[in-house]
Amino acid sequence: MWWVSFPPTSLQPPCGEAIFVSSPVCSGEQDLLTHSVAPMLLRHSLSHIQTLIHSLHVVFSLWQGTRDPLFLTGVSLSPDWPVYEESLIKLSVYDVKDKSHQTVSSARSFLGSASFSVADLLKSKDQQLSLSLRTADDSAAVGTVVVCRLKMGEIEDGEVDHIAADTHQKCTLVCESGTTNDKDNGPLMNAVFKNPVCKVYRFQTVDSKLMLVREQMAECTLSFSIPMQLLGLFIQEDSCRIQDLNDLGELSPHWDNLRRDVITRYSQLIKTYQDTLAELEKLTGPAFKPSCSKAQKYLEFIPINLHTQRMRVTCPRKTDSFYDVITVGAPAAHFQGFKNGGLQKLLSRYEAEKKSTAYQCIYYSPENTAKAREILSTVAQLQPLICGLADRLLLATQQRSSHTLRDALKSLAEKTEQFVHALKDELVKSALLALHAARPGYVSKKPDAVDIPHHKEYDEEEWDRVWANVAKSLNCVIAMVDRLQEQDNNKQESTPDQALADVITSHNPATDWRDQLSPLVVALKDCVSEVAERASKSMTFVLLQKASCSTPYGLQLQQRRDTVFSQALAALACGFVMRLYAGIEDKGFLRQLHSVGVVAQFESLLSTYSEEIGMLEDMEVGISDLQRVTFRITEAASDDPTNLQPTVTGRRDHYTVEVPLPLQAFQTLPDELRQGKLLQVIPVLFNVGINEQQTIAERFGDISLQERINQRNFDILEAYYKSLSLPCFQTQADVKELLETLGQNVVTKKRKNVEILWLAGAICRRLNGIRFTSCKSAKDRTSMSVTLEQCALLRDEHQLHKDYFVRALDCMRRHGCRIENVQKNIKCRKYAFNMLQLMAFPKYYRPPEGTYGKVDS
Q1: Which tops the pLDDT comparison, 413 or 726?
Q2: Which residue in 635, 670, 702, 810 has its CB near the most CB atoms, within 10 A?
Q3: For 216, phi and psi rounded to 5 degrees?
């Protein structure tokens, strides 16, 4: 790599504006060099560097500023195009005065040039050359260029000291397009994370050393695969709901009409989801949805601009450190719009509407409908499991092993008792009574009643008897097993060993056991089936009330919630996988993961004004719904990338994401993880609006939504911290202090209090959590936040020199991964801000001059 610097007195900056031009020139030269360059501003100027390396012609841009220019940039030489000692390199400097010109030649004027051979550089003292820039006719010197050689790759202590000593102290910032790092791009990472973009920086520390900072951004295959799996599960679940409604049997005309209406709506929802899934299956290309597509109908389930961002820091005499954050547009239903608000407001309105339409149906509270879904899920899970365990008990009789028989009986008893306990609920009994009243021929003595009816005509004790029969049948099975084992033990005590062996070989006692136990096991299975059928029908009837009371608006709301949840889950799955891969060798993190779960901290920069209120209301519900998600680590069938993709199972009330690991990695996990323990994720959301719309909201509007969100999620985060009993956290007094400070900031009335976000992010990292940053599109405000967080980490954790904090911040925003993210999204290297907007931004959230302009996002 060639490091080219212009000392402060080497040129006078001309006037005008700067542009960036890259113009390859074809020629017949055999030996080629390539470049990997992102010029770094150290002191601003309008002068430009043009590098001619054989047949490759590149113009670098530097920006308007002082009259004491000092720049630094790098050119890396590709191993694919070899360089020889006789290779000549020419540097030309131009003044670009007007970027409005269509051609480079019409927009620039030549200042001077200098040439050197590779041999000159390698043989020079300290491999550094100071070259004079000469005019075109070689009649005069117009400035000085310093070129030095810098080895790419890992920095060693001596090398860092050498670089720091041999370059001007003000010339210690540089950004280059880097190659991906094997540490961050192994086969496991490459299976899920795609198309990485890498930038490399060298920043000066307080002790005049240089740190190497590698910033990498990547797309994630889960952007599409998780939503597509969810759509399939939505279709399957709603199809089952239709079947369950049909299985309710004959209903009176009123209820039958309501049922038909609900089935029609579910059918429409299924058709919509099938069409969306079909369109998604046709897509090829990048593994992310650009911000300009956020309102497209067939992409509404896909998260906006989902990317991973990793910063790896290498310092002299220290081990590498890395910091991850997931960037994603706020999970929200952009296609459906925000005219009537977001999910939080719409759900409240929906509950009020249900109560007002209760004259045609029975009103059940949200808690009761949630309980109904839970009971249905429990029945669907436990009934086949109990039947399987009952069969396993009969098989255990053939082994004539007391230990095996006891284990089988213990499992059967535990699951049956769990089943009975789940159904011991007044909701099941009252719903059965209501379903009885909905049968043809029933005449209520209270026709005007709007509450759950109670009916003398129906034997209210019938459910209690049926339900109790399960427990009685189980007790009979347990008693029979005890009797059989007691008889067997008595025989063994009264029969000598040889005589017992003769008895065992003369007939098959296991058949006797099976014959005596089988009728009781069959009776248990029949009782469980009868209870499951009644409970399922009663809970389906409860859910029918919810659907029939809501009118078509209810299913529209369900679709909105599905849309937002899909985006949120895709982001969470991406973050969980990245955090798991990063901590797979961290025993403390893995112990924390299976003991108390991991916190997922979502940072939002949405305003509480206009449409963004609706987005924030959507996001709040979507993040909260992630509490219904658990993760499980499994062993992959093979190391093939297709077998390393996470999969989703479950229903709307609970989903499980299974994350497969290759055999070698899986075998190193703790027993709890290898045995498939479900892993909890604790989602928390903190929001602080920073733009000009938030200024309006704070002065003339309402910020209560933001205040409520921050207070509620602080309580969740504090409760999670208190649940940590692991030794690694008991000594972290700073976490407790940070939490106390966060709590104070949450209740403090302060405009645009971004310290809330900084504190929440710091706490999350100290708790081994997963960090997310969001704004409307994860492109502009998110970029400001991510780069600020990275530079703050360099300052606080790696002693970035205070004089270089703002410069490093500008460097990352001008040349780093986030400006590449903007380019990927809107095909323009400009953050979508204007000057008036930025006046309302907190100081450190403002991009450098020349990197912003109002563009469509």
Answers
A1: 413
A2: 810
A3: -130, 135
Please state, in angstroms and rounded to a whole number, the distance separating the CA atoms of residues 377 and 241. Answer: 12
Q: Residue 459: which CATH number?
A: 1.20.120
Tally of structural domains, the chain: 2
Helix extents (H) in 282-365: 343-356
AA letter at 630:
T
Q: Is 829 exposed, middle or buried (0-12, 13-18, 19+ CB in 10 A)?
A: middle
| Whole-angstrom distance, CA of residue 834 vs CA of residue 393 | 73
CATH code of residue 137: 2.60.40
698 assigned to some structural domain:
no
Question: What per-residue string of b and e applies to 245-259 under the rule 16 or more CB within 10 Å gives b?
Answer: beebeebeeebeebb
Q: How far apart are CA 548 and CA 571, in angstroms?
A: 33
Top pLDDT among 567 and 171 is at 567
pLDDT of 13 strictly over 70: no
Domain enclosing residue 72, as ranges: 2-150
Is residue 135 domain-resident? yes
* CA 162 to chain CA mean position, Å: 42
Q: Quick one: pLDDT band at residue 682, thresholds 50, 70, 90?
A: very high
Q: SS3 for 10?
A: coil
Residues 6+ apart with CB under 8 A from 330: 304, 604, 606, 615, 616, 618, 619, 774, 775, 776
Q: Which of 739, 756, 757 is nearest to 748 (CA)?
A: 756
Mark which of 126, 150, 174 sits at the end of a domain.
150
Smallest CA-to-CA distance from 811 within 219, 70, 237, 38 is with 38
Summarised one tens digit per residue, pLDDT across range 249-288 is: 899 998 899 899 889 989 999 999 999 999 999 998 889 9
Q: Compute the distance between CA of residue 149 and CA of residue 481 in angstroms, rounded to an integer.
A: 83
Banded pLDDT at 107 (limits 50, 70, 90):
low
DSSP-derived letter for residue 319 is: -
* Residue after which a domain boundary falls, among 96, 115, 150: 150
Residue (of 631, 632, 623, 570) closest to 226 by Cα position:
570
Write the DSSP string, 563-577: HHHHHHHHHHHHHHH
Partners of residue 88 on adjacent β-strands? 117
Least confident of 162-171, 211-220, 270-279, 657-666: 162-171
CA distances from 128 to 2, 123, 211, 456 (A): 10, 9, 21, 100
Say if CB 536 and CB 376 are below 8 A apart: yes
Residues with a known catalytic role: 775
- 413 SS3 class: helix
Residue 644 lies in a domain: no
Residue 110 β-bridge partners: 94
Rg, the chain, Cα only: 34
Helical axes 611-625 vs 343-356, angle rounded to 10°: 80
pTM for the model stands at 0.78
Question: For residue 839, is it within any domain?
Answer: no
- Report the distance separating Cα 502 and Cα 504, nearest Å: 6
